[in-house]
Design brief:
Elements lengths: L1 H9 L4 H20 L9 H12 L5 H20 L27 H9 L12 H23 L4 H6 L5 E2 L4 E4 L8 E4 L2 H22 L17 H14 L6 H15 L2 H8 L4 H5 L2 H15 L3
Antiparallel strand pairs: 1-2, 2-3
């Protein structure tokens, strides 16, 4: 089991996830011993019998799915060790467990309009010069962030973790490092956003560091003492909602981008661009695409 644990650690699973998988696997191995089943060579029929034994405990379907996911890790590990050739879990799915990402999806034109119409400052005559300067710095930083939301589909946490070295302006690319919940990828920058990112990186960011009296290698800096971008994102979404009342959150923007990708790229390419560790995470966004299709059917082919 020590080598199995090392395998899970190599997959960069959290400590809590590893403990859960090990606990679920012990349950399965105990069942195999009691039912005289060889765990390493078990077929789908035996595994389904095990799942039925779990369901008899009247646990939630979500819990059953966690047991199945743990077994998938186990059989993937056996395949890696060349003990098995196929994973019997791949064809097993528990109905009644749905992960849906239902948002009001913005189309490509609506997303890009957010960027092009975004004002980097409010030129209010009753404000002093320092206020105007700080407002301009914050506004230009936020426009740079907005571009990464709209064209690269980054999440708030990914944006907060970006470092200066990740921005590859000469190559016209940006590197998003992997984490526990997402994969590393390198994405191209749009020509429209490169100049704004260049100005931010070489000028605006330096000014923000002075204003906030910070030393940091993070790409995006708040103007206050905190290193968190939580308040930055909140104010950005609030401002975007004024531009377009349909806006609800950064997650909605990301969902809109991924939905657009699914319409224009294949599933695996979209998975890479979105940074999803599992293709099932990408497939979950197909529900948004299907909703759009249903809306078009009702609009153009009313019953």
């Amino acid at each position: 089991m020590a080598t199995f644990k090392s395998y899970l650690q190599g997959k960069r699973h959290s400590k809590a996830t590893i403990e859960l998988v090990e606990r679920n696997l012990f349950s399965y191995l105990n069942w195999c011993e009691e039912s005289r089943t060889e765990s390493e060579t078990a077929e789908q029929r035996e595994i389904l019998n095990y799942i039925k034994s779990i369901q008899k405990r009247e646990v939630k379907q979500r819990t059953v799915q966690l047991y199945i996911r743990s077994l998938k890790h186990y059989y993937d590990w056996l395949i890696k060790r060349e003990i098995r050739e196929e994973n019997p879990i791949n064809q097993i799915d528990i109905k009644g467990v749905k992960r849906q990402f239902l948002y009001e999806i913005l189309n490509k034109q609506e997303l890009e309009k957010l960027y092009h119409d975004f004002k980097t400052t409010e030129n209010e005559k009753d404000k002093n010069q320092n206020w105007y300067k700080n407002s301009l710095l914050v506004g230009k930083r936020n426009k740079a962030i907005l571009g990464l939301l709209i064209w690269q589909g980054l999440g708030s946490r990914e944006i907060a973790k970006l470092k200066v070295e990740d921005l590859q302006l000469r190559e016209g690319k940006i590197k998003i490092k992997g984490g526990r919940n997402y994969n590393e990828r390198i994405l191209p920058l749009e020509a429209t956003q490169i100049m704004d990112l260049m100005e931010y990186n070489f000028q605006i960011r330096t000014e923000l560091l002075k204003v906030s009296q910070k030393e940091s290698d993070l790409l995006f800096i708040s103007s206050g003492k905190s290193n968190s971008l939580g308040n930055v994102m909140f104010k950005l979404m609030k401002k975007l909602k004024v531009q377009n009342p349909k806006i609800t959150s950064a997650k909605q923007i990301r969902a809109s981008v991924i939905t657009y990708w699914l319409k224009n790229y294949n599933l695996r390419e979209t998975q890479y661009k979105a940074g999803h560790r599992y293709v099932s995470s990408t497939e979950a966004y197909l529900v948004n695409d299907l909703d759009d299709l249903q809306e078009d059917i009702l609009k153009f082919h009313p019953l």
